[in-house]
Amino acid sequence: MPDLIGIVLWPLKWAVELVLVGWHALFTAVGLAPAAGLTWVLSIIGLVLVVRAALIPLFVRQIKSQRKMMEIAPELRKVQEKYRGKKDQLSREAMSRETMALYKKHGTTPVSSCLPLLVQMPIFFALFSVLNDVAKHATSGLGGVGLLTPELTREFYDARLFDVASMHVNLVTAWGQSDGQITVAILLTLVVLMIASQFFTQLQIISKNLSPEAKTGQAYQMQKIMLYILPLAFIFSGVFFPLGVVIYWFVSNLWTMVQQFVVIREMPTPGSDAAKAREERLARKGKAIDSSGKVVPIEKYEAEQQRLFEEAERARAAQPKRQQPVGKQRAKKQQQSPKASGTAPRTTAKPGTDSPS
Asked: Residues 183, 169: contact at Cβ < 8 Å?
């Protein structure tokens, strides 16, 4: 039976090897030793830079999707309230149809906000597979699936971070080695930093970049749960990650953390604490955000607000006045003879008769 996972990962492994070998060639060209741990660590960091730079368009799409999900949160709650307590099949199908119609109308889905992570996972597994194969291939005199030749594979296998920790070793393996205490300490430190950076990045989002309305929705509760579940998952899985994979994931988390900091500071969610902080910073500089979202001088902003106010007043004045609702009895009285107005009818004397005295 063919290795299905290996077949699926083969093109990704080829791409990972291409980037690693490319960066390795660059660093050796500037004078670093080919088999040095630092050379291969920098090559892994270079892989992170290439992958994350390629994911920037997806990240922008993720931000837009998250904003749209927050905007439609009140409408989603209305749909949920409409079918609350109804557990029959027809009601569930109707609720699902209305929810999907809402997503389609606003051009978003819950999956869109997870795209960068979903795309990264296959690359992560490909790197994991490449590093796992290094030990097996090096001892057999083999290379990788692409540009990682047998000679480069052997150099990668022999590389040691701080001349101690191998790129392909994990905590379980290091723990069983007689001289693995320093390697265990390095791996434990990096795993803790990887988990801490993941936690802090997620905490940034839910503490600063959510509007008050978004903090009342179900999505917010899920984000709070994920804030604690993801680190726990990495605690249990991190012990099986090779050192090279831990370095990749930690550096990738640092990228995410910095990227998220810039987005929260410069493009915060409207109504969030980060948005209020940005408005205060701009106000101190004599600037504000106009109706189109551009930063303009405060004088221009105030002129725009005055113009919008005057337009709203003119539109209100041009609207037809709404008639006060009239009850049936009152309408009947208004349609009656002039008695309803409180005046007596005038009497006209017939010709040839005296008018009444």
From this structure: yes
